[in-house]
Amino acid sequence: MRASLIQIAVDEGESVNSRRERVSSLVREVAARERSGLVVLPELWTTGAFAYDSFASEAEPLEGPTYEAMREAARDAGVWLHAGSVPERDPEGPLYNTSLVFSPDGELAAAYRKIHRFGFDKGEAVLMGAGSRLVTVRTPSTTLGLATCYDLRFPELFRGLVDAGAEMFVVPAGWPARRREHWLLLARARAVEDQVYVLACGTGGTHAGVPQAGHSVVVDPWGEVLAEAGDGEEVLTVDVEPAKVLATREQFPALKDRLLGMDPPRG
């Protein structure tokens, strides 16, 4: 299975509509050139992950312009497309940071609302609602587990995805450059502890004055980094072997030793 991660550089001088058109073309071009079966985009690439002032004005309904553009790109390219995430406007609720996954025929295979919102008492944490549902996507080759950016810091979410059958985590992000080492460390940690592939796709450029980490990365179930991008806009293409997940779990069956339902400490 060949996967391509498109690390988009967000240029604040580029309009959302222009970027949407450019990225749609990139998906088609990359899929054709790399012969990819799966293409992945970053988190909030239409607005920038730190462009808080734009979230409300650029928010879309689930089946909005980004949905339509990505649906057509997936269908034209004939690929599974994780289209990153968009600020979703729920007509009956708050905004959400919502990831979209399309099948090769252009159908929406899954939508995942980010569970852990970053910002503590500002930014995304107060401007967007929290998702509440773990989401997996079954493809002919493997089962994808969906997470977004800050979710990477919460291992219990990924354990839940493993219990739901995930063999590959896809993590779009808009991770800040000042914490790049955390990004790389946590991607490897999630791969090792859950014995899965991790496809972590970040952004380049600067979002609202916040330099982005870039360094999209693909990690195998042993924690080996198969490929890592640089700081700018870049395409990272890697051949992954879904069968390696089962082989790793058979060779080193650590997941079988999990102990659940332990008694709490006594005071």
Shape: globular
Q: Gap between N and C termini, in Å?
A: 52 Å
Task: Report the structural category.
Answer: alpha/beta
The amount of helix comes to: 25-40%
Mean pLDDT score: 96
CATH fold topology: Nitrilase/N-carbamoyl-D-aminoacid amidohydrolase
CATH architecture: 4-Layer Sandwich
CATH homologous group name: Carbon-nitrogen hydrolase
| CATH domain class name | Alpha Beta
Helix count from the secondary structure assignment: 7
Oligomerization state of this entry?
A: single chain
Instruction: Count every beta strand, where a strand is a DSSP E run of 2 or more residues.
Output: 15
Unreliable parts: none
Main β-sheet description: 6 strands, mixed
Short key terms for the protein model shown above:
15 strands, 7 helices, Nitrilase/N-carbamoyl-D-aminoacid amidohydrolase, single chain, alpha/beta, six-stranded mixed beta sheet, 28% helix, 267 residues
Q: What does this 3D model show about the protein?
A:
This protein has 267 residues and is of the alpha/beta class. It has a single domain (2-254), classed as 4-Layer Sandwich (Nitrilase/N-carbamoyl-D-aminoacid amidohydrolase), CATH 3.60.110. 28% of the residues lie in helices and 27% in strands. The chain contains seven helices and 15 strands. A six-stranded mixed beta sheet has the order 6-5-4-3-1-15. The radius of gyration is 18 Å and the shape is globular. The mean pLDDT is 96.
